[in-house]
UniProtKB/TrEMBL annotation:
The gene is LOC106119323. Its main location: nucleus. InterPro entries: snRNA-activating_su3 (IPR022042). The keyword DNA-binding applies. It is found in: Nucleus. It comes from Papilio xuthus. Belongs to the SNAPC3/SRD2 family. Keywords: DNA-binding, Nucleus, Transcription, Transcription regulation. This is snRNA-activating protein complex subunit 3.
């Protein structure tokens, strides 16, 4: 697993977290009670039960009981939401003042805030970017040259510039693993929109999860492995959401098409999709099968669980994903999990982050789950004109030097049909892969 895929979390060590100090202070702030018992919350579950495969490494955490996060940090001044975004700074100052206590005056509290300010950690040479979103490529854009004058003197930037000067055919950029990734940050413009009736998440009590999905691959003999897992999308989901809601956010080209040969009459395309015909699927998270058992679905996991029992591997539990919320899961950050649908289309995914909602985040519950990063898929163009996006996949055609071959609508009808009747023996399938691309290639 590359460094980009490491799990970012403060929960790295199997420790218990003190959550409350049972000492109280009177109105004059002159005395404290003698009780200072500390209640401890265990954030980790025992790693027991059957396993299909052991995964070890410094980027994989122990099983985390995520629903204990709000209780573990309940003593910190992170709960609550200001009346408006304009009062966020005053709101946070008051929360810290109440947490510190001691009956400090305005002047004393101002001095304390000044002494404890993170600005003391600055050196004065930090790079200041006008945006936190990466631009296309790996070098700073020209408009940031003035801002990044000191950054341009870094050795790593100089090395990159030398590499770009020598790379006349632009081959190096094609080797970058995340060269096509685009960030889609959570927006807060709709927070004050009266048309949205969603309930805002409560800071300090609600939990956010970040899930990274990777490109699917076929299981069995036709399995095609690349040298590494290819990132496809990043999804942020709240702990209140059901696991089935997370499943609905997974975009896969195998769901949008029906593999039916329509070469005899290409004008009569199927009116349904593969996801509607075959809606079954399951997720395998922390050695538990979460099956979509809603109406019309079948259980893919039954033969797998029976297979494991016959080989004395253990009894793997099965849970209905529509009855489980994210906050009820026991997860391992950085651990590869599996999502399977359409029979044998397998996606790997990982939980890369779990944290509490902060006071500065104005996130609506109805806005989640949502994508925050996607892979910029390249458009598949017609192999004949190389000008328009492909709409058809042709297989077994003797008149085409490629198998399979992609065609746009115009080339497909002009080259393979005469008066609406196909020429020769071939199979044709509709192709909608270009339609699900979230971002198109840059012009």
């Amino acid at each position: 697993m590359d460094s980009e895929d490491k799990a970012f979390t403060i929960l790295k060590c199997p420790i218990t977290v003190p959550i409350s100090l049972e000492g109280t202070q009177d109105s004059n702030h002159n005395k404290m009670t003698t009780e200072d018992e500390v209640k401890e919350v265990n954030m980790y579950a025992p790693d027991i039960g059957p396993k299909f495969y052991p995964v070890k490494g410094n980027v994989v955490t122990a099983p985390i009981i995520t629903k204990n996060l709000p209780e573990a940090f309940s003593s910190l001044p992170i709960c609550g939401r200001p009346e408006s975004k304009d009062r966020l700074e005053q709101f946070q100052d008051q929360k810290i003042r109440d947490y510190v206590g001691g009956g400090l005056s305005e002047e004393e509290f101002g001095k304390l805030a000044k002494y404890c300010s993170p600005n003391h950690l600055r050196t004065g040479k930090e790079l200041i970017m006008d945006t936190n979103l990466p631009a296309f490529g790996f070098l700073p854009p020209k408009k940031d040259d003035k801002v990044c004058e000191e950054g341009n003197q870094l050795n790593i930037v100089k090395k990159f510039k030398l590499r770009v000067e020598k790379d006349k055919t632009n081959l190096y950029v094609k080797k970058l693993k995340y060269r096509g990734m685009r960030l889609l940050p959570l927006t807060t413009e709709d927070e004050d929109n009266d048309e949205i009736n969603g309930t805002p998440l409560e800071p300090g009590k609600d939990i956010l999860y970040r899930v990274r999905f990777y490109r699917p691959f076929m299981c069995g003999k036709e399995r095609n492995n690349s040298r590494h897992s290819v990132f496809t999308c990043d999804v942020v989901v709240s702990g209140q959401s059901r696991l089935s809601a997370l499943r609905e956010r997974i975009v896969c080209a195998n769901d949008v098409d029906v593999r039916v040969d329509v070469s005899a009459n290409p004008t009569e395309l199927p009116q349904t999709t593969a996801k509607e015909l075959f809606p079954s699927g399951f997720m395998f998270i922390n050695n538990v099968f979460y099956v979509d058992e809603r109406e019309g679905r079948v259980d893919y996991t039954e033969p797998i669980r029976l297979w494991a029992q016959r080989r004395a591997m253990g009894d793997f539990p099965k849970v209905d994903m529509h009855q489980v919320r994210l906050q009820d899961l026991v997860i391992r950050l950085g651990h590869p999990e599996v999502y399977i649908h359409q029979g044998n289309c397998e996606h790997l995914f990982t939980f890369s982050e779990v944290r509490l909602v902060g006071p500065a985040e104005l996130v609506m519950a109805e806005q989640l789950p949502r994508h925050t990063a996607v892979l910029q898929h390249q458009t598949v163009y017609c192999t004949t004109c190389a000008e328009f996006g492909a709409k058809w996949v042709v297989v077994g055609c003797p008149r085409v030097p490629f198998d399979p071959a992609f065609f746009c609508d115009t080339c497909f009808m002009l080259y393979l049909y005469i008066d609406g009747k196909k020429i020769g023996d071939f199979k044709a399938y509709s192709y909608r892969g270009n339609e699900i691309n979230t971002l198109k290639p840059l012009g």
